[in-house]
Each structure stands twice: as structure tokens, then as C-alpha cells.
Design brief:
Radius of gyration: 30 Å
Number of domains: 2
Largest sheet: none
Distance between the termini: 80 Å
Number of helices: 5
Length: 108
């Protein structure tokens, strides 16, 4: 048995229903008038509206938010990031140079 798809309601639709509910109309009457399966559907809309106002009823993007790069998150500029990379690469070159010198000493 398949589950029916969840119906999505527009921001304007939700706001109209919530405003009428807050004006004193019952959930059951509103559900019948707007063709909702139950008055329970209205409850989370009302909570979101009371908590966040109109923004609580607006659609939200699905999934995780895009990941920010570490430079953006830390507020470091690109120049600082490049300086750190340059220093890391200098250290790596110095290490490899010393390793090569030690190997050549062992061959003599």
C-alpha cells in the first residue's frame, strides 16, 4: 500500500487560514471550507506564525544548507589563506631538503 504524497500549501494559503483561525473561526470549519483532511493541519501553522510571524509560514529549502568554506567561516581573507599555505609549503620543502642531505651523507 502506497502512502499518498504530502500536499504542499502556499504561503498565502497558510496565512489566510491562520488569520481566520486567530480571528475566532474553528479549525474544523476552516478545514472543511478549504478542503483540508483535518483541522490538525492548522495547528503547526498557528504555532509557527505565533513564534516567527509571516516567516514561519514561508517555505523552507529542503536538505542541509550549503557548506561554507573554512576561510569564509573564520573570516580569514584569501591573502591570509595563501600566506598560511605558502608557509606550509616552505616547511615541507625544507624538510625534504634535509632528508635528501641525510640520505646523501649515508651514501658516502
Amino acid at each position: 500500500m502506497e502512502k499518498p504524497d504530502r500536499k504542499k500549501f502556499s504561503f498565502e494559503f497558510k496565512r489566510a487560514v491562520v488569520q481566520r483561525f486567530l480571528a475566532g473561526e474553528s479549525k474544523i470549519e476552516l478545514a472543511r471550507e478549504y478542503g483540508l483532511s483535518s483541522g490538525k493541519i492548522i495547528e503547526p501553522w498557528v504555532r509557527a506564525y505565533r513564534r516567527d510571524g509571516d516567516e514561519g509560514l514561508r517555505p523552507k529549502s529542503a536538505g542541509r544548507p550549503p557548506k561554507q568554506s573554512t576561510a569564509d567561516a573564520d573570516g580569514a581573507s584569501e591573502l591570509d589563506r595563501l600566506r598560511e599555505e605558502n608557509e606550509r609549503l616552505r616547511t615541507q620543502v625544507a624538510y625534504l631538503g634535509k632528508l635528501r642531505a641525510l640520505r646523501e651523507q649515508g651514501r658516502r
